[in-house]
Amino acid sequence: MKKTHKHARAAALSLALLAAIPAFGANAAAQSTVFAKVGDAVITQDEYNTAFAVAARNKFYHGKPPEGEIAALQREVSDKLVARVLLLREARARGMKPDAAEIQATLAGYEQRYAGSEQWKKNRDKMIPKVTVRLEEESLLAQLEKIVRAIPKPAIKDVKAYYEANPQKFTEPEQLRVSVILLKVDPSSPSSTWTKADEEARNLAKKLHGGADFAAMAKLKSGDGSAQQGGDMGYLHSGMLPDGTQAVLNAMKVGETSNPVQVLEGMAILKLTDRKPAKLNSFENVQGRAQDLLQRDRSDQAWNQFIAGLKKKTPAQVDQSRFLPLAEQSNARPAAK
């Protein structure tokens, strides 16, 4: 379980976000056009736009995403807003009450955090009621989720079956012990500098293939931090090296030295000194982790099924007229060979 059950997400909200996000379904008809109807509750277009803007900022902070990803996110946000309305209704139907003490503590934290903010001072009286409602909703959602996810620990026989069905989750990846000689080149250097480094690397590789000592050459020539260890970078596994470098190593035998490889920092010559094959950990060594993973999977399944049941019981009417079309994967042409 994550810390969201104690309003950790709400406590981390920025001042601008606190000012912008309304309580979903509260006096919705008076706020803007209708985006969705969930039973007798309404989600406005303004509410949806705000939620989508927050989700897009968190997901696509690195730049403009492809339209296909935007289309998928539009539907994801819509589903979450509908689920939110249904979950709040369920929590209230069960007679749940917000954790008043926790909410007051969170509000006190905002008061302290934004004490020097002119925006907070100016809009505090308007923001506090809205933020309070939001925190009350988060409290109800957290309590309900905790109840639904509270499933018993799985039996050992189920844990073992899970372990046997998911060996990839308990397998240590292949490890390669690699040494490197790096002839450093600033990435912004002109092509002539790179050409010179390439020529030097080829001459060095020729000497190494002729029997020159790799470790001695690394201490003498390498600009990598491993130079004083004879270029030894220790054991590495897949994902720790760029794809191009990994591909070169995958094709090498233990003891072999590569031809020069261009990397971001310059020209590299690699030596594969050892290869440890992937190893499946014994059930006894990973039993605790397997139990935790299975329980987490079952908890997620229980939560998703619970939401699906609420949606089936109270179908929503959603205006998808502004949604971008989803990519038609089935109609995509196969790549040319």
Average of pLDDT: 88
Largest sheet: 4 strands, antiparallel
Query: How do the strands line up in the largest sheet?
Result: 5-4-7-6
CATH overall fold name of the largest domain = Triger factor/SurA peptide-binding fold
CATH class of the largest domain: Mainly Alpha
Separation of termini? 46 Å
Estimate the helix proportion, in percent. Answer: 40-55%
Task: State which percent range the strand residues make up.
Answer: 5-15%
Give, in order, the helices and strands: HHEEHHHHHEEHHEHEEEHE
Number of strands: 9
Question: Stretches where pLDDT falls below 50 for ≥5 residues?
Answer: 1-12, 24-30, 330-337
| Structural class category | alpha+beta
Task: Walk me through the structure.
The chain is α+β, with helices and mostly antiparallel strands and 337 residues long. The chain folds into three domains: 183 residues, Triger factor/SurA peptide-binding fold, CATH 1.10.4030; 29 residues, no CATH class; 104 residues, Chitinase A, domain 3 (Roll). Helix content is 52%, strand content 14%. The strands form three sheets. The chain has a four-stranded antiparallel β-sheet, with helices on both faces. Strands 2-1-9 form a three-stranded antiparallel β-sheet. Strand 6 and strand 7 form a beta hairpin. Helix 3 crosses helix 4 and helix 5 runs antiparallel to helix 6.
